[in-house]
Design a protein that fits this description.
By secondary structure, the protein is α+β, with helices and mostly antiparallel strands. It has 2 domains: about 220 residues, no CATH class; about 140 residues. Helices cover about 40% and strands about 25% of the residues. It has 12 helices and 14 strands. Strands 1, 2, 3, 4, 5, 6, 7 and 8 form an 8-stranded mixed β-sheet that branches. Strands 9, 10, 11, 12, 13 and 14 form a 6-stranded antiparallel β-sheet that branches. The longest helix is centred in the C-terminal third of the chain and has 19 residues. The chain starts with a strand and ends with a helix. InterPro entries: tRNA_endonuc-like_dom_sf. It comes from Candidatus Methanocrinis natronophilus. This is DUF91 domain-containing protein.
Length: about 375
């Protein structure tokens, strides 16, 4: 049975608006494109309401390396923390809104994390801005609430997006005029189990009457307890305090030795931002650009950021990235397949407990720095 809401006008007249289904799925998609606030960011996070930046509609997702797009996602948004938010829209009259859409969305999420190149989201966003005549810097500045006269850290924002993507930190949102019970239970279960990904449904009811249309969104599937949404800024002290809690003494000592190497050989130690996991990234400044070398994490993992290296010489050349991966693979326990040299392969820092292995790794870092400085 259709519901109603009531508006009291300034003259005291009570006006009745009756719930009405959308004429088409495309109409609801267009409303979300034009009014992203319908995703009800204030309900998703009351302490720090989510704000939205539309990357694009109809975003293609492949299911193989360098493969053609197999699926088309209805909307891709980013929030102010750079978290990719995948939105799939269905009308309640579409039978797929019950179960089929869940498998569809999980396909999107699993394959986007693996097969979207690091720069693909930025490229899609900037292409849309060009078509619409928008300024990407202004839109991101608005999202981050930066004063128009201040500089927008575009590179820093896109680094956060890429870091979230490769960590699987996504938000999956099912949007419909009505969320059926089967989908509601699935969403609540998945969101209770999945981490760091988040799964939600947004019911956007439409009420119409006497020339007035009102849209009422409601978020379904929220976790009962939410930690503070603002990411934590890590520093040396907090990083090693956390690492001592999660790793053994030898791993902590190795991380300190790598940091000592970085202080002597690079230009900047970048301490990451994250609610639970800390990182430090030795960066080299050369020819007007910062070059990433490695990422070291509080949970005892080292990332090799090939995905970022692809945009900076000399490792924009595939042959140089292959040479680097082959050097790393000479360290016992490190295995980097050749098809991962444009992504972010990782290995456990415990591999470097052997003194010879640690020396090989430091020599490889020296080689990276030498190659960058020689360009």
């Amino acid at each position: 049975m259709a519901g109603k809401i009531y508006l009291v006008e300034s003259n005291g007249t009570l006006r009745s608006l009756e719930e009405q289904l959308y004429d088409s799925e495309d109409l609801l998609q267009t409303l979300l494109e034009k009014y992203p606030d319908l995703l009800a960011g204030e309900q998703i996070d009351e302490s720090s309401p989510r704000r939205w930046l539309l990357v694009s509609r109809e975003v293609g997702i492949p299911d193989a390396e360098l493969g053609a797009d197999r699926w088309s996602l209805d909307h891709l948004f980013l929030d102010q923390d750079g978290i990719p938010t995948l939105v799939e829209v269905k009308r309640s009259s579409d039978g797929r809104v019950r179960r089929e859409v869940v498998g569809q969305m999980l396909d999107y999420a699993a394959n986007s994390v693996v097969y979207w190149p690091p720069e693909s989201i930025r490229t899609k966003f900037e292409a849309r801005c060009e078509v619409m005549g928008d300024d990407p810097r202004r839109l991101i500045g608005d999202l981050l609430r930066i004063d128009p006269e201040d500089e927008v850290d575009m590179e820093g924002f896109w680094e956060r997006v890429n870091t979230n993507l490769r960590a699987g930190k996504l938000r999956l949102v099912f949007a419909a005029d009505e969320i059926p019970g089967e989908l509601r239970r699935i969403v609540e279960f998945l969101n209770g189990q999945m981490n760091p990904a988040e799964v939600l449904a947004v019911e956007i009811k439409q009420y119409v009457g006497e020339g007035i249309k009102t849209l009422v969104p409601k978020v379904i599937g929220l976790k009962k307890v939410y930690p503070p949404s603002d990411p934590r800024q890590w520093d040396e002290q907090s990083f090693f305090e956390e690492m001592r809690r999660r790793c053994d003494k030898e791993e902590v000592d190795i991380s300190k030795k790598i940091l000592e190497w970085a202080r002597k050989n690079v230009d900047q130690i970048f301490w990451g931002r994250g609610k639970h996991d800390g990182s430090y990234i030795p960066k080299l400044y050369h020819n007007g650009q910062y070059h990433w070398t490695i990422d070291v994490w509080t949970y005892g993992i080292i990332d090799i950021p090939f995905g970022y290296m692809t945009s900076r010489p000399p490792f924009d050349e595939e042959s140089k990235r292959l040479e680097l991966s082959h050097r790393l693979n000479q360290i016992p326990g490190v295995i980097i397949p050749d098809d991962r040299i444009d992504r972010f392969p990782r290995f456990k820092i415990s591999i470097l407990k052997d003194e010879t292995a640690l020396c090989q790794f430091i020599e490889t870092l020296d080689w990276i720095v030498q190659k960058i400085r020689s360009t």
